[in-house]
Amino acid sequence: MKNFKILIVGLISCIALIGGISLYTSHHASLKISEVKTINTKSSKRKKITNKKFYKGNIREIPGDTLFVDYPKSFNGLISKGKATILGTVTNLQDASNDSLPNRPMTMATIAIDQILAGKLDKQETKVKVLFMGGNIANNKLLRDVSNKDYLTPQQREAAQSNKIITVKYSYMPLPQIGKKYALIISPEKKGVNGIPEVFYMPIYSGKGVFIRNSKGQYLREAEPQPVGGGDGTKSSNTSENDDLIMNRGNE
Known about the structure:
By secondary structure, the protein is mainly beta.
């Protein structure tokens, strides 16, 4: 992966599904929040897909401690790490898991762009594809590294080796939802990264680049129960209220 290096260490049990440490880096030219640009999108007929049909029953949570390398000290610095900051709505979800990362569930979300808050995109890009970590995966793929361990009971081993499709959510990344509105700080990835056969975008610093619109119309990041390491070795909350306030002011 070019802009995001993710390292999961430790064993994942088929009961607890425990994750390890994640490491992220990002490099992009500086940008500033500037004039908001409105994108006009035309509605088109598409095959109906719903969250209920896409995600598979109960969601398995994989907690983890997330360390960010070179994390910026200001909100403008955070914005500068992405090519663009957009407001948009998820219109489609697609399973993006592949043999390149066989035990890593990934979901590609199609985002219809409503506004560009910062940076630039090509004029024809009224929609973008954004890759989220987490999504649907077979048990035997997710747990391939531990499915034959001696410490598993026969029942646990059978569960770990089953091909039942489950939905996995990492603690540092929300699962995209059809019809939901987001503010996203995104950076581009080349074709072939993460085994994806097309050009796409990723949120910067995982969940730090994803602001979810709530019922009150506010864009807020998902609360992170565990501490997150800053680039200078300090600990900070994954959800900075100040950053959320600045993002919402930029949307006004």
